[in-house]
Specification:
The protein has 486 residues and is an alpha+beta fold. The chain is 30% helix and 24% strand.
């Protein structure tokens, strides 16, 4: 026993994956997993006692009032409601806020839910049907990001994660002294074990074990998306998945008769920020912010990496995994594995919602084998990071959403003419698999960085055949776009 009835604990979790297409809308899924989480806690009546309902932003449909609609479905009357912004860190921010409010005695029970029905949207559109779900927002609100892309990023069409993360990967690869082939082989070896975990996860979107070479070798069903990344090594977002978690104070858990072996505690967590623009990162291929987040979370939890019995590192792209491993000096082939779900490319990456799934899976793992577990989140373009230590043992210091580290940005030149040095790059590929353009970030002689496109077919082909990082190039503005040649 913690001795404090306000000690927050996770008592009910649920995950749900829809296999039949088209499936239900997000509101239906929110209600489903909320009820399943209450049933998991062994206290279905808990939904009527919710003081807070918090919902992760959904890409699938813009409702007029998401939390109110869910409360209505559940027959709840929470005095606190929250709907997140777009970010892979959103679930942990909501969970952390709920835990803090419980610890301060401001409430006793909170529900955090999230759902996407992007696979259903795709199925309906392919069938020529219009998506027409309930309670649409009118007018439709602005997109839910906290900060729009930089004008230079928009001009150079550098806002899709398949391109921004690939650029950071090439910068990391060059700094590590890896060849193109060495990076490719290592990526397959790191990610293939994740497919084994996904295959054993009943909630995973893809449940097939794959060999390392199958994941990283280009093929008709495994095209390049943002070179060097192939489709089978990046997050799959078009899924129908939902998850929910219910937190209560230990005192309420006692009154409800929830067994102690059902309770999982947030020992400590932290939030940090790298730069919002990829080109503004002081070191393009690494994340000092991640190291700061890990230190703070472990210090607050009173634990260390060696004490973690299970890990789930956010895995939208290989660079996210590699940067997280480097931040805590973890071997990417650590026998504990890097995920408890199978990760975003295989278990599923439902937009902003994945960390709610990994937290639910971690809770189930710790209930089965008591100990400590680390769950991380990543938002935007490797910009925002959360680290959370969950445990079957109460203790530690919660922490809050105040960033413990914020990176200092490098200046970005919108337009530049002259020589520059490639800092990181990618080649964008179309849905037919063909290379369309090179996109690079270059270091400028006087400091700062600039973006550029590579348009000549021979240069695009060369970028995929040799290491371009460190190459001196010439940038010439053509309208709002810098064009690189060498």
């Amino acid at each position: 026993m913690s001795g404090d009835p306000r000690t927050p604990c996770l008592v009910g979790v649920a995950q749900h994956t829809v296999r039949v297409q088209p499936g239900p809308e997000p509101l239906d899924l929110w209600e489903l997993v909320a009820r399943e989480a209450a049933a998991d806690a062994g206290a279905p009546g808990l939904l009527n006692a919710l003081d807070s309902i918090q919902v992760v932003y959904t890409e699938s449909w813009q409702y007029d009032d998401p939390t109110a609609r869910l409360a209505e479905r559940l027959g709840a009357a929470p005095r606190h409601r929250a709907y997140s912004k777009v970010s892979g860190t959103a679930p942990q921010l909501l969970l952390g806020e709920a835990a803090s409010m419980i610890a301060r005695g401001e409430m006793d029970a909170a529900l955090v839910a999230g759902a996407e029905a992007l696979a259903t949207r795709r199925a309906l559109r392919r069938a020529g049907e219009r998506v027409a779900w309930s309670h649409p927002a009118n007018p439709k609100p602005p997109y839910g990001w906290e900060r729009p892309p930089h004008p230079a990023e928009l001009a150079h069409e550098l806002f899709l994660p398949v391109h921004t993360y690939a650029i950071m990967e090439t910068a990391r690869r060059a700094a590590a002294g890896e060849s193109i082939e060495e990076e490719r082989v290592a990526r397959g070896l790191m990610m293939a074990p994740m497919t084994e975990i996904a295959a054993a996860n009943p909630h995973a979107w893809y449940r097939e074990v794959a060999k390392p070479s199958e994941l990283v070798t280009p093929a008709a069903d495994n095209r390049f998306v943002g070179w060097p990344y192939t489709r089978r090594t990046v997050a799959v977002m078009e899924v129908d998945q939902a998850a929910a978690a219910i937190l209560v104070g230990d005192g309420l858990a006692d009154r409800l008769g929830i067994p102690r072996d059902k309770r999982v505690y947030l020992r400590g967590w932290s939030y940090v920020e790298d730069t919002w623009e990829v080109a503004a990162r002081p070191v393009l291929g690494s994340s000092p912010a991640m190291a700061a987040a890990a230190r703070a979370a472990f210090e607050r939890a009173g634990t260390g990496l060696d004490e973690m019995s299970a890990l789930d590192l956010y895995s939208c792209f290989a660079i996210a995994l590699r940067a997280a491993c480097a931040a805590v000096e973890l071997d990417p082939l650590d026998p504990r594995g890097l995920t408890v779900t199978g990760g975003l490319p295989y278990a599923g990456g439902p937009a902003s919602d994945y960390v709610l799934h990994s937290t639910a899976a971690m809770a189930e793992r710790l209930r089965a084998a008591p100990g400590h577990g680390l769950v991380t989140g990543v938002g935007m373009h490797l910009t925002k990071h959360t680290y959370a230590v969950w445990s079957t043992e109460p203790g530690g210091v919660l922490g809050d959403a105040a960033p413990v580290y914020v990176a200092e940005p490098v200046p970005i030149a919108d337009s530049y003419e002259g020589s520059a040095t490639v800092a990181g790059y990618t080649v964008a590929h179309g849905r037919d698999g063909a290379a369309e353009r090179g996109v690079l970030i270059a270091d400028l002689p006087g400091g700062g960085r600039a973006h550029a496109h590579v348009r000549h077919p021979d240069l695009i082909a060369e970028a995929e055949s040799r290491e371009l990082v460190g190459t001196e190039v010439r940038l010439v503005p053509e309208g709002p776009v810098n064009v690189a040649t060498w």
